[in-house]
Design brief:
The protein is of the alpha/beta class and 537 residues long. The chain contains 14 helices and 14 strands. The chain has an eight-stranded mixed β-sheet, with helices on both faces.
């Protein structure tokens, strides 16, 4: 009789819905009818895609999740039927190493408290001193120093925390240890250390392992028997070497084809099976064979309606497939899916030259040759064909050069025309501004002449003194006006017209000064006349 036997184990989680009253509207079929046997002292490996139910199956063995149906027999005792207190005492013979080492350790407890907690619960050791000595010996076996007892989980590395998890399982002296992804969170070098540690402890203490993993290389290295799960079911089971050498189930074939081979020659010849579609939902699994929706060899008349049983095909090899023998013999054709080379797609790593012994040189692209069609009954000589082809090529090159040159000339002409248009527009704008300035100057000159005539008749000394003061004020006002006019003209002028406008503004300012003087003189004359009139009165 095997140490651990699972027979038709099912774990279904109800899907509930409702606000005031929860009602069950469906189930998630996490584990759906798994049967397997684990012999004492051996390692049983479980592989499969994420979500296929591996971890749930492992937890159901320890009754960490309730078993919906089936039996889990450990050394003749059905764990599924044990009441709570008896199951708690029985767990000393069943322990688990969890996937996340940090998440499985209490951060508020030191290592001695974590390891001694289980020993106290199961009555191992007479006192704390005896338990401490046992813990030190276990730490030494897993490669940790004795001074680690007073430290906390966050003070250790990932590999050290996983060793603490293994030590916690070993202190209870179990018969079976379920390792749920024991090395997935560790780097490659630490993975090798933990795997070697598990092997050494198994030889020394006679332990039995159930190893759950994704890494097929790790499972092959550590396992004696391997079971492949798909969507809550066991689809194939075989000894490790036999399963890797000749997988029978289509899903196992696709799974093994994804494992890279370190030998370059073997890797170049190896084929990869690509599955179509995604993993179906465990809440709504397909009818018949669970894998028929993605199977490359699926047959509509049987695979979609009848669920295959896990049958023995010899040598301890069990497979759940209706057509495993036909697929192995090659008599059943593939209906879906795709088989591709495992090498890089579209890359020829070993190019073969056309002529043996001559290196393959890529052909250099040359000028296009014009094909000549000979007339019926007239076959040109090879020399004439070559000459005509050369002439046609030369003509094409000359024509292309002329087209490029003409295009350049057109572009240059367009650029020159645009530049000339811009220059003419600037000249016209400057001329308009100059004409405006000249008209303003003429108007100012005429005004100055009129004022000069009035100034000529100015005569009174007393009035001249009064006029001088008014002239100064008027000159300042005129200067301000002239300056403002100059700034306005300067702001409007752009480009080449700005310089000319400034010159004209300077000239205008001079004239404005003279006009101011003349205007002041006229005002002085008027003031003199007004003074004389006052005196006369």
């Amino acid at each position: 009789m095997s140490l651990l036997e699972l027979d038709g184990v099912k774990v279904h989680f109800p899907i509930k819905k409702g606000i005031f009253v929860d009602r069950t509207v469906g189930h998630v079929y996490a584990v759906d009818g798994v049967s397997l046997k684990v012999e004492a002292g051996e390692t049983y490996g479980l592989v499969g895609e994420s979500g296929c139910g591996k971890t749930t199956l492992g937890r159901s063995v320890l009754r960490l999740v309730d078993i919906t149906e089936g039996s889990v027999v450990l050394d003749g005792t059905d764990l599924a039927k044990l009441p709570g207190e008896e199951m708690r005492r029985f767990r000393r013979r069943l322990q688990m190493v969890f996937q996340d080492p940090l998440g499985s350790l209490n951060p508020r407890q030191n290592i001695e408290s974590i390891l001694s907690e289980g020993m106290v619960a199961h009555g191992i050791g007479k006192d704390q001193e005896e338990r401490r000595e046992k813990i030190k010996s276990i730490l030494d076996k897993v490669g940790l120093p004795s001074n680690a007892l007073s430290r906390y989980p966050h003070e250790f590395s990932g590999g050290q925390r996983q060793r603490i998890g293994i030590a916690r399982a070993l202190v209870l002296e179990p018969d079976v240890i379920i390792c749920d992804e024991p090395v997935s969170a560790l780097d490659v070098s630490v993975q090798a250390q933990v795997i070697n540690l598990l092997d050494e402890l198994q030889e020394e203490l006679g332990l039995t392992y159930v190893v759950i993993a994704h890494d097929l290389a790790v499972v092959r290295h550590i396992s004696d028997t391997i079971g492949v799960m798909y969507l809550g079911s066991l689809v194939e089971e075989a000894p490790s070497d036999a399963l890797y050498a000749e997988p029978k189930h289509p899903y196992t074939k696709a799974l093994m084809s994804a494992v890279p081979v370190p030998d370059p020659e073997v890797e170049d010849r190896r084929e990869r099976i690509l599955l179509t579609g995604d993993l179906p939902s465990p809440a709504n699994p397909p009818s018949g064979c669970r894998f028929h929706t993605r199977c490359p060899w699926a047959q509509a008349e049987r695979c979609s309606t009848e669920r295959p049983e896990l049958r023995d095909i010899g040598g301890g090899h069990r497979v759940a497939c209706h057509f495993a023998d036909e697929i192995a013999a090659g008599t059943l054709k593939r209906t879906t899916g795709e088989v591709v080379s495992a090498t890089r797609e579209g890359v020829d790593d070993n190019p073969t030259p056309e002529t043996p012994g001559t290196p393959a040189v890529p052909e250099q692209p040359g000028p296009p040759k014009q094909e000549t069609v000979p007339e019926q009954g007239d076959t040109p000589e090879p020399t004439e064909k070559a000459e005509s082809a050369d002439k046609a090529a030369e003509a094409d090159e000359v024509e292309k050069a002329d087209e490029v040159e003409s295009a350049d000339d057109v572009e240059k002409a367009e650029t020159t025309e645009a530049a000339e248009s811009t220059e003419k527009a600037d000249e016209v704008e400057s001329a308009e501004k100059v004409a405006t300035v000249d008209e303003a100057g003429k108007a100012v000159s005429a005004e100055e002449a009129d004022e000069a005539d009035e100034v000529a008749s100015a005569a009174d000394a007393e009035s001249a003194e009064k006029v001088a003061t008014a002239a100064k004020a008027e000159k300042a006002e005129s200067a301000d006006k002239a300056e403002n006019a100059e700034k306005a003209e300067a702001a409007e002028t752009v480009g080449a017209a700005e310089t000319e406008a400034k010159a004209e503004s300077a000239e205008e300012a001079g004239k404005a000064g003279a006009a101011g003087k003349a205007k002041a003189a006229g005002k002085a004359k008027a003031a003199g006349k007004a003074g004389a009139a006052e005196k006369a009165v």
